[in-house]
Design goal:
- The structure is a single chain.
- This protein has 227 residues and is an alpha+beta fold.
- The longest helix is centred in the C-terminal third of the chain and has 38 residues, at 185-222.
- Helix 2 (42-60) crosses helix 5 (185-222).
- 21% of the residues are buried.
- It starts with a helix and ends in a 5-residue tail after the last helix.
- The chain has a domain at 35-189: Nuclear Transport Factor 2, Chain: A, CATH 3.10.450.
- It has helices at 2-11, 42-60, 74-77, 82-86, 185-222, and strands at 100-111, 114-123, 132-141, 148-156, 182-183.
- It is built from five helices and five strands.
- The protein has a five-stranded antiparallel beta sheet.
Length: 227
Amino acid sequence: MAALAATAGVFFSNTGHRNETPFTKEPVEVVAPPPKTVELSKADARDVLVVAAKFVATAVLRDHTERSYDLSDTAFHQGLTRDQWKTGNIPVAPYRPSDLDVVKWKLDYSYKNRVGLKVYLQPKPTAKVGGLAYNVELHQVGPPKHRHWLVGYWTPAGQQGPAPSKAAAGSFDLAPPQSKASLGAIWLVLPIGLILALILSVPIVLGIRGWRRRVRADRAYNALPQR
């Protein structure tokens, strides 16, 4: 009986008098619901990957660091000017290119105009440093016809050491990841290759289009009654 009385005293110690929290006239704080997950289109996945690749190559690996200034938003700059950013003293942990073996990534979330990634830099077997993981978010800005992605934050996830498990690498699919994606140096030069391919393809397409027009014109001319 003594133990029961002691237990009751712990949970019902205020039964002898009222000690309730008084009501206030302050507005009730409403917690916003989590954003709704949306499917990431292939075009947006490609654009996000290109921006992320350029950011790794410029900001993280410190190769032409100033170029990453336009890949990130104003809040991320933390008041730094372009010239200050160029010095490399930026809010991004650096990684030496000579230590990098593979870049792995995984889609973390996809909301409207916001995409979260987990990026992992895996070191070479001969490197004396561990890997470095990042939590990354990019968001879409600009008018409808000129929408583009910018890095909103790029924060170390605190995971250093050996490479993560296979489940840590994935694609941009929203389905449960079943395959991994590992990209080496080619991942970093992919944007340059895309740009060069686009530049070279324009005159080729225009030339083919002009040739086809000339062929059609010659055929139409030959079909006319000859005098």
